[in-house]
Amino acid sequence: WLSMENIVELLSEKGHDIVVLVPEVNLLLKESKHYTRQIYSVPFGQEELENRYRSFGKNHFAERWLLNAAQMEYRNSMIVIDMYFTNCQSLLEDSATLSVLRQSKFDALFTDPALPCGVILAEYLGLPSVYLFRGFPCSLEHTISRSPNPVSYIPRCYTQFSDKMTFPQRVGNYLVNYLETYLFYCLYSKYEDLASNILKRDVHLPTLYRNGSIWLLQYDF
């Protein structure tokens, strides 16, 4: 949202009508003259939200090494991903909110696809989608968007390697790369059931991501 807010304000100044979809419990999505908020309910409170983010931030500084880094990152990511899965489930089962969104006939949907809810919603509403993206907890955004990402030259998440890798580092980089698809499945597989329920068909989540119209990656390729 910190990145998207600037874009929303500029679009608003150019005359676009913008609706921001907001859970009733949140940290930053406050009222503004630049947009209208569409609020939906979630089954957790402000204290739980803040406690989970506090734990998530603190755990980023925990000591780790190559062989346990992915496992530690997975456990840490699940602190917030579990909560936002509940958030997404609440939204996609909220028939009143979905009805308002369908009737509004939007032109496009902006979302951070690190969590798949916006991706699923764009498909449900039949809208082109713009991804504002810092990256997955694995490097599959390159595979999904079909951009080059050779494992011999580009270090993977958690390795802390530079682009000047020794041969043992390249081997380690390859092994981490080999686990990324499995990590993606562990983090996001539950969303496939949500997507299948609302879209009334079997859904392969990486295929759904490929329907994104524009990827705005927020890092130096």
List keywords for this structure.
single chain; 221 residues; mainly alpha; three-stranded parallel sheet; two-stranded parallel sheet; 5 strands; 52% helix; UDP-glucuronosyltransferase 1A6; membrane; glycosyltransferase; transmembrane; UDP-glycosyltransferase
Structure description:
The protein has 221 residues and is mainly α. It is built from eight helices and five strands; from the N terminus they run αββαααβαβαααβ. The chain has helices spanning 2-13, 46-59, 66-92, 95-104, 117-125, 140-144, 167-199, 205-209, and strands at residues 19-23, 36-40, 109-111, 129-133, 214-217. A three-stranded parallel sheet has the order 3-4-5, with helices on one face. Strands 1-2 form a two-stranded parallel ribbon. Helix 5 links the parallel strand 3 and strand 4. It is globular and about 55 Å long. The two termini are 21 Å apart. The mean pLDDT is 88.
